[in-house]
Every structure is written in C-alpha cells, then in structure tokens.
Amino acid sequence: MTLSIDDIRAAAERLKGRIERTPCRQSRTLSEITGADVWVKFENLQFTAAYKERGALNTLLQLSDNEAKRGVIAASAGNHSQGLAYHAARLGIPVTIVMPRNTPFVKVQQTRAFGAEVVLDGETYDDSAALAKTLCAERELVFVHPFNDVKVMAGQGTVALEMFEDVPDLEVLPIPIGGGGLIAGCATVAKSLNSKVEIYGVEPAMYPSFTAKMRGVGAATGGATIAEGIAVRSVGEESYAIARPLIDDVLLIEEPYFERAIALYCNVEKTVVEGAGAASLAALLAYPEKFRGKKVGLIITGGNIDTRLLASVLTRELVREQRLVSLRIIGDDRPGLLGTVSVLIGKMGANIVEVAHNRLALDVPAKGAEFDIMIETRDAQHTQEIMDALRESGYPPRAV
Predict the structure, then answer these.
(1) Which of 28, 159, 334, 354 has its CA 20 to 30 A from that of 198?
(2) At what angle do helices 255-268 and 307-320 cross, to 10 degrees?
(3) Cα dihedral sign for 302, 305, 311, 316?
(4) What is each CA distance from 261 to 25, 178, 225, 295, in whole angstroms?
(5) How far, in Å, CA of 103 to CA of 125, rounded?
(6) Rounded Cα–Cα distance for residues 133 and 136 (Å)
(7) What is the mean pLDDT of the chain?
C-alpha cells in the first residue's frame, strides 16, 4: 500500500466545498511562551469539531453506487464515528457505528443525532471492532477503518496540504499519533514538499504503541489518559508502514503537559481543545529544546472535550500556577479571628473561595482552631505576598 501527495491533492479536490477550510494562524503569545514561531491549524472548527471528517468523507465519496446503497459501518467511540455519521447522512448513505458500552452518553447521542444506527457492545475498541467486522460481513456493508485505510490517510493529509499553502516555510510538524492515519497523510505531504521538514510523532506516555513498534519491543499500554483520542493499543499496519520512513522521532508526553496545553489554548487562543487535540502543543512544552527558534505547525485535531473535564483541567491549572491555594492557619479559637484574617486577605487583593474549620484535630491545642482557607490570587508571587503578610500579623500559614 502506497500513498503519494497526488493522492492527497485528489482528496483535497473531492473535499473542496464540503468541509471547512480551517485557518492556520500565528500565535504570538504561544510563540513567546515556547520560544518557537508557532502557527496553529484550527481543525476544531470543523462541523463535528475534528479533522476526522476529512478521511471519512474522502472514503465515502469513492464508494460505488452499489456500496453506497448497501451502507457503511465503523467501530469508534470518538471523532471518526461522528465525522462518518454526519457525512454519510448528508450523502444519503446508511451508516452503522459500533461503540464500546462505556462510551460517554454525549458521544452516543451526538452520533445518533447525525442519523447513524448505534450498536453499543464490547468493553474496548478491539471488542467493538470485532463485532463491527462480523456485522459488516453479515449485512454486506463497507467497513470504514478510522486510520488503517489509504483513502482515510489521504483525506487526513489534506490538513497539511492546507497548512503549507498558508505557511510554505514551516520547518517542524509535531503530529499526534493514535492509529497513525493523520501522521501518515501529513508526513507524506510535508516530506514531498520539503524533505528537510522535521516530523515528530506525539504519543501519550501511557500508550506508546508507535514507539514500541518502532523499537521492536512490546509495550504495556493502558491508563486513564486525558488524550483518549490517541490512546490506541496497536498502531495500524498500513499507516505505520507509510509513516515510519518519514518520521524523525516520536515524543512521549506525560499527563501534566496535556493539561497545561488544553489550558493554554483556552486562556491564550480562546478555543476549546480536547486532550488529543492539544498533543502537539504539549510536545512543545515537554521538549522545548527540539522546537526553539523554529517555525512550527501545530494541529488542533479536535475540540470534543467533556465540559466537566475541561472545568477540572482549568481549575487544576490554577492550582499548578499557585493562583488557587489552600492555606492552613492554626490560631486561638476566639471570636473575630476568622474575620481578622479575612480582612487582611481582602486588603491584599485576593478572593476567598472556601473556608473550613477544624476544632477536633489532635495536633491542634484544645483552645485552638484550625482553618483551611482557599484563596484565589493573581499569580504565585501574589500568593507569597499574602502568606508573608499573614505571617507578619501573627498567623503563619501553611500551603496544603
């Protein structure tokens, strides 16, 4: 199986006018933070909020009349299912999606809303894929793989084709790797246009599937990564064969970097990004020396993140930056103590978020009281100034 830039250009012609031609813009603030010249491709602006529409639609547009009449099937718990369902419905093609039973309800609901028949079965993607192939044979459907298909890879490669049309002198592309379809397509474009462009794959440290295959070793995969969109146990054979010769290295990312990247996109670019969608920026944060001083193209691959998870990530980032801090103060249990401390904190310009008393802790004097006061500040320096002021006033705090 081969993939050429001509295949990807042909895919771009098929997709023209059927998907969003998303912008690729420079981020001056992210450039200042990372030390690289950062350009961001906003694929979260697709209708289903992910680049997966490209490969799915490119495949659907190449079905024969007989295949389109019979319908298509796929196994997916994420963006592939929604992209395939949405465009199949627009083209009048019946579509069945098999999802693991533990798929978040919102994704099931969205996929059904696009007109797909959803079958919930299996504990993992592999279980669902096995059932999908069985149903495919029984119903004589066309199986549309989320990544291990050259038509899908060609569609995904149109992302890079647009990026180089907008920014021809890009020097580095860090690209998320799940099954390998995106990096196979985008690396094919980049290396065809300029063989000196550096390509870095980006994987969650919990799921080093491509890295393990590249090194010829087995790898333990598993865990609750926030980048669930690229949490794949086995990379595709075809996508690996195409991508591997084009990749300079693969970078493994720990969870805090995904969280920080999501928060930066939200706070700096005012855009919502899922864990996998933030992977390329996470690579810049984790390995700044590889990108410093270079023109780097980042792909926001998707923006489908649970709102509660997004809220948790943003709150955790406040804690990480010491803008949200819980201070423990031990003092005499007398009227007015909490009021005195609160007035001092207010005068210093901080906001009290939460207060908890504890009079029964055994490490506190019988006539004393323990207060946990959560405060919101401007930054770590502001927090330290408040702690110093409390200490000078006779109420030494301890961060907990």
Answers:
(1) 28
(2) 100
(3) negative
(4) 17, 18, 14, 18
(5) 10
(6) 5
(7) 93
Distances 357 to 70, 354, 374, 387, 394 between C-alpha atoms, Å: 66, 10, 12, 19, 18
**Dihedral Cα 95, 100, 104, 105, nearest 10 deg:** 50
230 contacts 279 by C-beta, under 8 angstroms: yes
Of 215, 351, 280, residue with least CA distance to 24: 280
Q: What is the pTM of this model?
A: 0.90
Contact between 210 and 184 under an 8 Å Cβ cutoff? The reply is no
Mean pLDDT confidence for 340-346: 92
Backbone angles phi, psi at 269, to 5 degrees: -95, -5
Q: Where does the chain have alpha helices with state H?
A: 5-15, 28-34, 53-60, 65-70, 79-91, 105-113, 125-139, 150-166, 181-193, 209-215, 237-243, 255-268, 279-286, 307-320, 337-347, 380-392
Q: Which residue has the higher pLDDT, 365 or 272?
A: 272
Residues in the chain: 400
pLDDT of residue 127 exceeding 70, the answer is: yes
